[in-house]
Amino acid sequence: MPPPGPDKALEPQLSVQNMLSLRRFLGDAIQAHQSIAMLDIGNKRSRLMISEGESGHPQPVFHHMMLGMDLLAKRTFRHRMPSEAQLEQGIMLVEDAVTPIARLVPPSNVFVTRDPCLLDVARHALGIQDLQAAWVETGRLPMLSREAIESQFESLVQQASRPHLPLGEIPQSPRWAAALLILREILHHWQLGAVRLLPSLREPDQSAKG
């Protein structure tokens, strides 16, 4: 598939030097043979970046999925928290996009994200308002487990079944719901146990909120 057109939400691109710096930043969280797998979500598409370990080449390789915030939060959820039917439709759309990519994910990898939408999901799931302070205080990158994501997703399912009774413990944002759904399906279909949280290199797209 030819590379898609530009998506401002997927910038900046990353170089070999960036990958070497990221490995140093990850420290003992990554071993020399492990690949880095990084997920970014755009408005119109999402991107998986793979940088191989010592047995491969650190040059980042990008794999794009035609799955983004516009497809879920705007077109599927219609700028509202999803109903049961909309959530089911969203699950099918995400599955169709992420399943073919699963074979491209190296079996030994450290899965990371710097995506602002996914970091918002992580802050809520972990009960950490300031991830930057957590990085400074502990000297370690916070990690979000698949179990924590499943717990958040169960709350989203409960609300979808009773849309007239919003659950106070989850953010009432269709973009948050879309990011949670994408991350949940990716962790499941790519057989990943957790995602490590990196400092974001870009600000959330303020024009696309809703």
Folded structure, characterized:
It is a single chain. The protein has 210 residues and is α/β, with parallel strands linked by helices. 40% of the residues lie in helices and 14% in strands. It has 7 helices and 6 strands, in the order αβββααβααβααβ. Helix 2 crosses helix 7 (174-189), helix 4 crosses helix 7 (174-189) and helix 6 crosses helix 7 (174-189). The longest helix has 16 residues, at 146-161. It is globular, with a radius of gyration of 17 Å. It starts with 15 loop residues before the first helix and ends in a 13-residue tail after the last strand. The model is unreliable at 203-210 (pLDDT under 50).
Task: Give a summary of the structure in a few sentences.
The chain is of the alpha/beta class and 210 residues long. The protein is 40% helix and 14% strand.
Strand order of the largest sheet: 3-2-1-4-6-5
User: In one word, what is the shape?
Assistant: globular
Oligomer: single chain
Put simply, the count of helices is 7
Q: Give the class from helix and strand content and strand pairing.
A: alpha/beta
Q: State which percent range the strand residues make up.
A: 5-15%
Q: Sheet bearing the most strands, described? A: 6 strands, mixed
Mean pLDDT: 88
> Span from first to last CA?
31 Å
What's the alpha carbon Rg, rounded to whole Å?
17 Å
- What percentage of residues falls in helices of 4 or more residues? 40-55%
Report the uncertain regions: 203-210
Order of helices and strands: HEEEHHEHHEHHE
Q: In total, how many beta strands?
A: 6
